[in-house]
């Protein structure tokens, strides 16, 4: 088996970084060998989570396990190995008239990672998390045994692995249901909101839309606090698209991809440059309410069109801070959070607000709860830890919690919500960090 010893790894935020022994199994027997030869290890996919979620002194890479096993084009079921990227699935499924029912804001995550994080998307209030559409997965447990897990087969292991951050075993493959589509395009509406009250009202009015999300300018204050743009969308039908698109409705034009070839210097991203970006982004839309049709890449994965965009934050990297606050406290809690960020000067040009619907009580390790969720990027600097402490205090006081998949430095009391994942073999540095504080 190939082993990369003392390999330096980071996740997408580039913070923190560690040296690890990376096991790359080529067969089921090599998976067993890796698990038996290590005292502690964690599975790792494409490294698109943040923080220290997929870190351990030994990691087992699933990236080479990237084969399609079955695609039922009549009913929309697909079965793949755990290392298959969502982008690979879309390449095959969209031309066949199917889309991934629940997808996060990047298509460069693996299917194993989607289950371990139980990812959510812009349609959580309608379609729930990724696990809602999962039929079964195969999991290698500590003994090396491969266990099929579904709602009927080994249901305890099924539900604890969903959102379980890889702490129950190594996901080898999975079968799930895709959504039928008629075109590769989205009927999109973009609506400007002058402040937080207006964007919250827009979310309430848009609950019948399948996809809703808002970008916020987090440096605004006063009457403009929460200045934002809502995007809401539906999969476009054949009747809705132009005659030109109807000629080949499931194909989108290949677009040139931008690339950030080097790390930006630390001074490049500062409050002034973020203010300029936010002004340009808000004002690129000349009308308050715009209706158009955009391809799925543009709607779901705009950042994926810029390769290595994480280098904008410089070599010190960044953290992505995502929390959820119950709906009853949503408006006031969010107002307090945004005021704190604006006063700190630690701006973020990527600020995304979404509304979560009801969560599945059986998926007890999943992050979403009914309420509002905000995700922000913060460049790592000397003042960041103090800002995170202030934000954590507001989130906790309002009954919220932090998304483990993006956690790097939050209070353990906000991330300590996993159950039935205690394992002496499958363990991440993140989980050790959280448990260490729990015992104090």
TrEMBL record:
Which keywords accompany this UniProt record? Membrane, Oxidoreductase, Transmembrane, Transmembrane helix
A Pfam family this protein belongs to? FAD_binding_4
Identify the PROSITE patterns for this entry. Answer: FAD_PCMH
- Keyword Methyltransferase included in the entry's annotation: no
| Positions of transmembrane segments | 157-178, 260-282
**FAD-binding PCMH-type domain location:** 15-181
Gene3D superfamilies per UniProt: 3.30.465.10
Q: Which domain of life is it from?
A: Bacteria
Q: Which PANTHER family match?
A: CYTOKININ DEHYDROGENASE 6, GULONOLACTONE OXIDASE
Query: What family is it from?
Result: Belongs to the oxygen-dependent FAD-linked oxidoreductase family.
Name under which the protein is recorded = FAD-binding oxidoreductase
Q: Say which species the protein is native to.
A: Faecalibacter bovis
**Organism classification:** Bacteria, Pseudomonadati, Bacteroidota, Flavobacteriia, Flavobacteriales
């Amino acid at each position: 088996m190939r082993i990369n010893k003392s390999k330096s790894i980071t996740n997408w935020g580039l913070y923190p970084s560690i040296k690890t022994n990376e096991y790359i199994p080529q067969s089921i027997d090599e998976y067993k060998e890796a698990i038996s030869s290590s005292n502690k290890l964690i599975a790792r996919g494409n490294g698109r989570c943040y923080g220290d979620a997929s870190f351990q002194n030994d990691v087992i890479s699933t990236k080479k396990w990237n084969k399609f096993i079955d695609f039922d084009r009549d009913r929309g079921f697909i079965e793949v190995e755990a290392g298959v990227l969502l982008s690979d699935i879309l390449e095959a499924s969209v031309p066949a008239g199917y889309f991934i029912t629940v997808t996060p804001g990047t298509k460069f995550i693996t299917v194993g990672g989607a289950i371990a994080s139980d990812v959510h998307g812009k349609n959580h209030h309608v379609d729930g998390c990724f696990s809602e559409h999962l039929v079964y997965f195969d999991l290698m447990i500590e003994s090396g045994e491969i266990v099929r897990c579904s709602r009927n087969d080994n249901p305890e292991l099924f539900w604890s692995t969903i959102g379980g951050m890889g702490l129950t075993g190594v996901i080898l493959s999975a079968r799930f249901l895709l959504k039928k589509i008629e075109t590769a395009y989205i009927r999109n509406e973009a609506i400007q909101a002058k402040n937080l009250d207006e964007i919250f009202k827009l979310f309430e009015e848009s609950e019948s839309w399948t996809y809703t999300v808002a970008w916020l300018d987090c440096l605004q204050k006063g009457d403009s606090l929460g200045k934002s743009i809502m995007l809401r969308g539906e999969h476009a039908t054949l009747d809705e698209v132009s005659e030109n698109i109807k000629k080949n409705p499931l194909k989108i034009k290949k677009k040139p991809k931008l690339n950030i070839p080097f790390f930006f210097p630390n001074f490049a991203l500062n409050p002034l440059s973020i203010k300029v970006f936010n002004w340009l982004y808000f004002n690129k839309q000349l009308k308050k309410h715009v209706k158009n049709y955009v391809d799925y890449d543009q709607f779901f994965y705009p950042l994926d069109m810029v390769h290595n965009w994480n280098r904008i934050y410089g070599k010190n990297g960044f953290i992505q801070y995502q929390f959820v606050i119950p709906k009853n406290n949503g408006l006031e809690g969010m107002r307090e959070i945004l005021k704190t960020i604006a006063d700190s000067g630690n701006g973020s040009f990527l600020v995304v607000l979404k509304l979560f619907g009801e969560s599945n009580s059986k998926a007890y390790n999943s992050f979403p709860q009914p309420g509002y969720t905000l995700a922000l990027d913060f460049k790592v600097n000397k003042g960041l830890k103090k800002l995170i402490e202030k934000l954590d205090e507001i989130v906790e006081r309002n009954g919220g919690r932090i998304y483990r998949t993006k956690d790097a430095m939050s209070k353990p009391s906000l991330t300590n919500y996993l159950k039935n994942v205690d394992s002496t073999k499958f363990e991440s540095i993140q989980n050790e960090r959280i448990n260490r504080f729990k015992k104090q």
